[in-house]
Design goal:
The structure is a single chain. The chain is built from one helix and no strands. It has about 110 residues and is mostly helical. The relative contact order is 0.03.
């Protein structure tokens, strides 16, 4: 009877050890899966951050180019308007010069 109890105790101990080993393996597998998932999530987050940064850079470049184009257009318009004003002033100056010549000639004729 004593031998039987010892054999049963040994079998129970072996069963507990086997269960404990299986639990350790299951726990290790679960931890490995969790670590792999965490690593994948980190990589996904990094990729999303990189994508967002790239998009922000592209939008900033577009905004800069739009502002540059608008400034160039405004400069060109202002330059054109200034040239038109200069041309108009030249025409008026020529007209005034012609009038002044006529008046001077008329005055000379009267004398």
């Amino acid at each position: 009877m004593k031998a039987r109890i010892s054999v049963m105790a040994a079998l129970i101990l072996m069963g507990l050890t086997a269960c404990s080993e299986q639990n350790k393996e299951d726990l290790q597998d679960a931890m490995d899966k969790a670590a792999a998932k965490a690593e994948q999530m980190k990589d996904d987050a990094q990729q999303a951050a990189n994508d967002a940064l790239d998009e922000a850079k592209a939008q900033a470049d577009d905004a800069y180019n739009d502002a540059k184009d608008a400034a160039n257009d405004a400069y060109d318009e202002a330059k054109g308007a200034a040239q038109d004003a200069v041309d108009e002033a030249k025409v008026q100056a020529e007209e005034m010069t012609e009038e002044a010549k006529k008046e001077a000639e008329e005055l000379l004729e009267k004398q």
